[in-house]
Amino acid sequence: MRVSKRFPIAVHALLLISRFGEAQRVTSDFVARSTGTNAVTIRNIFLELKSKGIIDSSAGKNGGVTLARKLGDITLRDIYCAVETDETDEIFKFHEGSDRCPVGKNIYGLMRPYVDNAISAMKTELERVSLDTLMKDLQRTLGEHDR
Fold it and tell me: Using CA atoms, how far apart are residues 8 and 3, in angstroms rounded to an integer?
């Protein structure tokens, strides 16, 4: 499946906001350093997350980003839909089949129901996982107790 780096970068950014946001300002530069990504890319991801009501942001010297919702109210599907497409034709790129070939002229129609089912399963699984779940997993990984 075609998923760009934007999705895991967005999840990374949101976990950074949750983990460090109370102690310091979380800015695009801060997130860019942690993710190894250009700050402009981070700002573009922030715009998409903000447009979906996942984060709030303020500009200026004291600006930064904060979560607009509780961790348990933000699912991986919310994040995926904010920064990626869920259109079948964008996730699965089909080639142009030959109209003269019985396989080539039918391959899209043959495969479409199955890839639609795969995308539906992905959406269902992403809906099951919240940022709260990931934060707890991170804390366990780091040997920390729930904060």
Answer: 9
In this structure, the chain runs to a length of 147
Query: What pTM did the predictor assign?
Result: 0.85
CA 71/CA 13 separation, integer angstroms:
13
Q: Three-state DSSP class for 120?
A: helix
Using alpha carbons only, give the angle 91, 97, 99 rounded to the nearest 5 degrees. 145
The answer to whether the beta carbons of residues 10 and 45 sit under 8 Å apart is: yes
pLDDT tens string 88-130: 666 777 778 788 999 988 888 898 899 889 888 988 999 999 9
pLDDT digits (tens, 9 = 90+) for 77-96: 999 999 987 666 667 777 78
> Distance (Å, rounded) from C-alpha 43 to C-alpha 62?
16
Angle at 48 between CA 125 and CA 82, to 5 degrees: 15
The span from the CA of 48 to the CA of 46, in Å, is: 5
